[in-house]
Write a structure and sequence with these properties.
Among the domains are: 88 residues, Arc Repressor Mutant, subunit A (Orthogonal Bundle); 103 residues, 3-Layer(aba) Sandwich (D-Maltodextrin-Binding Protein, domain 2), CATH 3.40.190.10. Helix content is 41%, strand content 22%. It is elongated, with a radius of gyration of 22 Å. GO terms for molecular function: DNA binding; DNA-binding transcription factor activity. It comes from Domibacillus epiphyticus.
């Protein structure tokens, strides 16, 4: 087993395919495949599961990846300390539901701790894809919420996929509306108050289950309903159509400006926002840095 082979495995997971990893590593696909197969033979495990649709990490591979990342990181620290080597490219990826605070933390992580070279990935994506990204270690962690409505289904799914859920904070439901919306000046609103306004929510694609919805009370029928795929579009429609969406109440003026406000929703429900991680992996240094920034951002906006 060589350090280079460990780097090969890390790059394949990062790229999601052997072909793309080979291209980035400036080597042929057969050579890369051979190197990985030799490593698997030496270890006596299958790091990757190979199918007609591509490759995914095996359970053993997920555990191995955690150790590989640590070994490579420590080796690079030694090289910099004793051989005056240039800083290596830092790697980090996170998949998240559409939360501004997740983006804020990502920005702060890069500003405070980014190296001269890095390759970071932030995926604002659908709930099912967050779970898939973390299961396959395409992302080191994922950020999503659970509630009394979806908890049983979501926790069972995460258990089956070998994922752990770590709570970050609990929140009561709020609505986000335009500052010019008639409801913006209210101290609180009810679901009945929202009846005539367009409800905005994030579409979940092929896996459009109510349990995957990013908004609470998604099963309630509405006269006006619009599905969007990104946060910027949703906020533009909040302003342009006087619509609303239901979320945590944590709103970042740095990213969203002062045109959107948060108003408490009078419903006896609580959501738990947290991060998920593969049980077999070990958190990298950049992941721990990101989580620390995330906690600080949440604390800042939840307790201004």
């Amino acid at each position: 087993m060589t350090l280079q082979q460990l780097k090969y495995v890390i790059e394949i997971v990062l790229c999601g395919s052997i072909n793309e990893a080979a291209r980035r590593l400036y080597m042929s696909q057969p050579s890369l495949s051979k190197a990985v197969k030799e490593l698997e033979k030496e270890l006596g495990i299958d790091i990757f599961l190979r199918t007609s649709k591509g490759i995914t990490l095996s359970t053993d591979g997920a555990e191995f990846l955690g150790y590989a990342r640590q070994v490579v990181e420590q080796a690079e620290l030694l090289e910099r300390r004793y051989f005056n080597a240039a800083p290596s490219r830092q790697l980090f990826s996170v998949s998240t539901q559409h939360y501004a605070f997740a983006v804020n933390a990502f920005v702060e992580m890069i500003k405070k701790h980014g190296a001269p070279e890095y390759q970071f990935t932030l995926r604002e994506t659908r709930t099912y894809e967050i779970i898939e990204d973390v299961k396959n270690l395409r992302s080191e962690i994922g950020i999503l919420y659970i509630s009394s409505f979806n908890e049983k289904v979501m926790m069972q799914m995460m258990k089956e996929e070998g994922l752990d859920f770590h709570p970050l904070f609990e929140a009561k439901p709020h609505i986000f509306v335009s500052a010019k919306n008639p409801l913006a000046s209210r101290s609180s609103v009810t679901l009945e108050d929202l009846e005539d306004y367009p409800r905005l929510s994030f579409e979940q694609g092929e896996y459009n289950s109510f349990y995957y919805a990013e908004e609470m009370f998604s099963t309630l029928p509405r006269k006006k309903s619009i599905h969007v795929s990104d946060r910027a579009t949703l906020f533009n429609l909040l302003i342009g159509l006087n619509g609303y969406t239901i979320s945590t109440g944590i709103l970042s003026a740095d990213l969203n400006g002062s045109d959107i406000v948060s108003v408490p929703l009078e419903e006896d429900e609580t959501i738990s926002v947290g991060w998920i991680v593969h049980k077999k992996t070990r958190l990298s240094r950049m992941t721990n840095i990101y989580l620390e920034e995330l906690k600080q951002i949440i604390d800042y906006y939840a307790n201004p």
